[in-house]
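Translate structure to sequence.
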């Protein structure tokens, strides 16, 4: 093993330790392999963009808009996961026939924005800000990159689907049950904070 590969594996291990500590919701995923893959996906996504923690990313829906007054992406991801889980479990209590997979719901909630390290990378953003005629603007949004990350580390299609379809991209297909819950939790999160004056966006008029 070369010095740089040792450094890379040490860095990835340190990032994985941060991810594990920062996401206590991981403990509620009963499938150990799935839990490990969630950590691997976030560690890979962060390391690829030179980040070490989810909280290194500012708390925005997209770069420059829907910005939290306090908190980071970590705040958002944990809240959306817990909102989606609460609504799913409430619906399951109301209708026991609901085919809810809580493991997939938690994993999908924790990973729905796993593509954001790519979309929020300032160096990458400069490429499409400076050359939109060549790169598009943005070159790609985080759901598509999240789908790529999930499949790259071997997560099941049910989780990759949530990362890829939780936002506007999902309007072009039928979302799964767990993806519907994450989608609505995600949009409710931003809308509820905006109407409450808890975002730095322009005030409502
Ligand atoms: Fe998102
Ligand atoms: Fe989100």
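Result:
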């Amino acid at each position: 093993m070369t010095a740089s590969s040792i450094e890379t594996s040490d860095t990835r291990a340190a990032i994985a330790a941060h991810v594990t500590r920062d996401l206590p919701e991981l403990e509620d995923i009963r499938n150990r392999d799935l839990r490990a893959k969630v950590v691997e996906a976030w560690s890979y996504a962060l390391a690829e963009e030179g980040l070490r923690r989810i909280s290194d990313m500012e708390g925005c829906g997209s770069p420059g808009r829907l910005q939290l007054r306090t908190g980071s992406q970590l705040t958002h991801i944990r809240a959306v996961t817990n909102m989606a889980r609460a609504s799913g479990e409430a619906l399951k209590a109301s209708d026991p026939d609901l085919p809810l997979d809580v493991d997939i719901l938690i994993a999908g909630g924790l990973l729905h924005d796993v593509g954001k390290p790519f979309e929020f990378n300032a160096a990458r953003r400069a490429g499409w800000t400076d050359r939109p005629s060549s790169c598009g603007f943005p070159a790609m949004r985080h759901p598509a990159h999240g789908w790529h990350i999930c499949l790259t580390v071997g997560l099941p299609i049910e989780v990759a689907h949530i990362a890829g379809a939780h936002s506007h991209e999902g309007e072009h297909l039928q979302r799964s049950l767990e993806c519907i819950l994450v989608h609505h939790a995600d949009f409710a999160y931003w809308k509820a904070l905006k109407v409450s004056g808890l975002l730095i966006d322009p005030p409502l008029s």
